[in-house]
Amino acid sequence: MTDTTLLEEPFLTIQRIIAQVAKTSPQAVVLENPVTGITNVDSIVMLEIVARVELELDIEIDEEQLFAISTVGDFVAVCRDLTAART
Amino acid sequence: MARARKLLLISPQATFFGRNPQHQRFKRESREFQFFDYTWTGFATGLVIVGSLTPPGWDLHYIDENIEPVDFDEDADLVALTGMTAQADRMYEIAAQFRARGVPVVAGGLHANLLPFEVARHVDSVCVGEAEALWPQVIHDFTHDGLKPMYRQTTRADLSVVPRPAYELAQQRYYPSIWVETSRGCPHSCRFCAATIRYRDKLGYKTVDQVIREVEYVQERWDNPYVLFSDDNFVVDRNRTRELLSRLVPLGIKWSGQSDVSFYKDPEILDLMHESGCMTMLIGFESVSTETLDGIDERNWKFRNLSKYVEAAKTIQDHGVGVYGAFTLGLDTDTKDSFEATAQFVKENYLAGIQVSCCTPFPGTPLRDDMERENRILPDKSWSYYTVFDAVYQPKHMTPEELEEGALSVYRSFYNREFSLRKTRHFKSIYRNLVKKKVEREQALATTGRSMV
């Protein structure tokens, strides 16, 4: 993933939502973070994050895809593919 | 200057799942189960309470043997041990090592409360009752060379005036969750429950201010702590629960608690739970069988509420609070069919998690009395098997091995990839609805400056 990823959607949306739900700073959310390793994020919190991201980006992430996500970078990649497919 | 006295506070090692090989293998292999096990791991609350009651001038060292080994050569003037029944065998080994060096050992905790005279044979002094009511006297007597062999509580501790537990003692250890106690005791006297019978016959509460101060103290010491409220039953006093939850909202923690199902009819409490960061509630369903629940507690409360279990689980989870169902299998009305019935219930209702234990006749319980009278206690199962996941008595309608295997079969059918995918789909749809409502509220507030009702 390129450095520009950090300045683009859907990363910015995902970063904002994770920070908001997990009550942490956006700067703490980086691509390398394991999704359940971000402070205050466990699998149930993650579902709230996923639900918010799905609504904001108007996408639906399949459970199989969700299970394959292990880092924030993976999450961004899945969302980017889904938003691209939608347009 | 006088040398500070040193007190070692030790929680002995134990197996926190079945000792039998099948359980251990499942624990190693199931990622889904490992997450549950990890979340519910915290420190020994009794020891941090003892720490808070020890006067200044003592050097305190908290040791959790599940995390670090005990150094039997460490300087110590006094050793305090705690433990549940599964830890008792190891507690005696540790006591023997320190006593051989001439270091006096005091024991408290659940097992010491259940079998004080047995424990007394292995230690110098036993505390029977709540630490708040006993420890100051123990320390006083020790410093005046008058340690007594047994201390028994005569008056109930007033939790509204107890000092804050010395959380800082456990701060340097790695715990995924931090236990905070807001009340002690439970209104249900279940036949197999040792804790409520021995610890406290009447509920006691900390004030809401006290609890908030404790949570804030924990937040100062751990980054975004996951709080586990250790109360046997978190929602007994509804007014107090509402006030406490409202005060927790601005703190922004994530937390779990334990209770019965009764709060499901209180939408205000359900909303406040979600808003205050409640992720899951561990709920003692115990059984899905009418016959098994009949007579399980003194007031037959759980039997009368069985018909509401499905509605309760759905209502609670629809409010964004996952239900961890706790079930006890192997009671006398249970048959081999009980395992499938339990598995069916937990899956049909998409519970967030489960804890399925083998019924365990702890010393001091009415259940134990029955088992002893009927000569059904397995003599080869030492205390270390009282994990609640190992069968330690002869069940009526199956072998002990079938009980262990049956309980594990419920875990296997629940904690696996296929069901986790279905469960995730279910919870995702719940969260989508909740998030939609939240976003609508936020938008209404942003545009009108007024919150939607």
TrEMBL record, chain A:
Query: Which PROSITE patterns does the protein's record reference?
Result: CARRIER
What is the organism field in this record?
Answer: Actinoplanes xinjiangensis
Please give the SUPFAM superfamilies that the UniProt record associates with this protein: ACP-like
**Pfam families in the record:** PP-binding
Q: What is this protein called?
A: Acyl carrier protein
Q: Where is the Carrier domain?
A: 8-83
InterPro entries assigned to the protein according to its UniProt record, in alphabetical order: ACP-like_sf, PP-bd_ACP
Which Gene3D superfamilies does the record associate with it? ACP-like (1.10.1200.10)
Automatic annotation (TrEMBL), chain B:
The record, for SMART domains, names: Elp3
Which source organism does the UniProt entry give?
Actinoplanes xinjiangensis
Keyword list (alphabetical) reads:
Iron, Iron-sulfur, Metal-binding, Methyltransferase, S-adenosyl-L-methionine, Transferase
- Which Gene Ontology cellular component terms are annotated? cytosol
Q: Record's PANTHER family?
A: ANAEROBIC MAGNESIUM-PROTOPORPHYRIN IX MONOMETHYL ESTER CYCLASE-RELATED (PTHR43409), BLL1977 PROTEIN (PTHR43409:SF7)
Which coenzymes or cofactors are required? [4Fe-4S] cluster
Stretches assigned to the Radical SAM core domain? 172-402
Known InterPro entries for this protein? BchE-like, Cobalamin-bd, Elp3/MiaA/NifB-like_rSAM, Methyltransferase_Class_B, rSAM, rSAM_horseshoe, rSAM_sf
Record-given protein name: Radical SAM superfamily enzyme YgiQ (UPF0313 family)
What domain of life is recorded for the organism?
A: Bacteria
Which residue ranges does the record assign to the B12-binding domain? Answer: 63-149
Its Gene Ontology molecular function terms? 4 iron, 4 sulfur cluster binding; catalytic activity; cobalamin binding; metal ion binding
